[in-house]
């Protein structure tokens, strides 16, 4: 499955570059920035689910920066994960009420989020109304393929695990039309998140949510090395022996 996914990533990265629509810093190895990202963000802001949302969790990648900026400008609190969830406080809170309006564009970048955001633990976060994620590839039915780290899926699972996100919380993305592939081309596993809405520069697509989402952390899908590298997972596993015993590869002696 991993080889199939990687081949699809490489196909999409190449297609964006050949078409001349990949923007700085390039497509390969990333959630690709694309021409028209600003127009796609404008379409997201037309959705009722966007207008009703007070708190948003977003990926930190460059193509979704216009979405984060739009959220902050609209007075919405934005949570951005620390890369690889590597800190004891794994999210940064960007509350526009605490920011100078002149700082909102800076705050929408990952460097700006670190400079201006407030590090928070899961216990300190407010319930999340809407999730913005990035994709390398996606389908009109809502299947999603990231860059391979699995962190967007894990961020969602953690939020579900502690009750910050309910099962009906919408997940949206912005993407270039060249990133959309045929149904069935993206293998979906039990821990993968799926999409509700897709915004391209040209259209809004409602997916009808064809794929289920994880109800929380699927411990049996996690490798011990990943748990050891993420403090919040370490803490959860250490306080619940049943969780620890479900970790993939766990040796109970």
Please explain how this structure is put together:
This protein has 253 residues and is α/β, with parallel strands linked by helices. It has two domains: 2-206, Rossmann fold (3-Layer(aba) Sandwich), CATH 3.40.50; 219-253, no CATH class. Helices cover 32% and strands 15% of the residues. The chain has helices at residues 2-19, 37-44, 48-52, 65-73, 104-107, 110-116, 151-161, 224-229, 231-238, 241-246, and strands at residues 55-58, 77-81, 91-94, 118-120, 130-133, 137-139, 144-145, 171-174, 180-181, 197-199, 204-206. The strands form two sheets. The protein has an eight-stranded mixed β-sheet with strand order 4-3-2-1-5-8-10-11. It has a three-stranded mixed β-sheet with strand order 7-6-9, with helices on one face.
Identify low-pLDDT runs.
none
* Count of domain modules: 2
Q: In what order do the strands lie side by side in the largest sheet?
A: 4-3-2-1-5-8-10-11
Q: How much of the residues is beta strand, in percent?
A: 5-15%
Radius of gyration: 18 Å
Give the H and E element order. HHHEHEEHHEEEEHEEEEHHH
Question: What is the CATH class of the largest domain?
Answer: Alpha Beta
Count the E strands: 11
Apparent shape: globular
Architecture per CATH nomenclature, i.e. the level-2 architecture of the largest domain: 3-Layer(aba) Sandwich
Give the N-terminus to C-terminus distance in angstroms: 30 Å
Instruction: Give me the CATH fold name of the largest domain.
Output: Rossmann fold
The largest β sheet comes out as: 8 strands, mixed
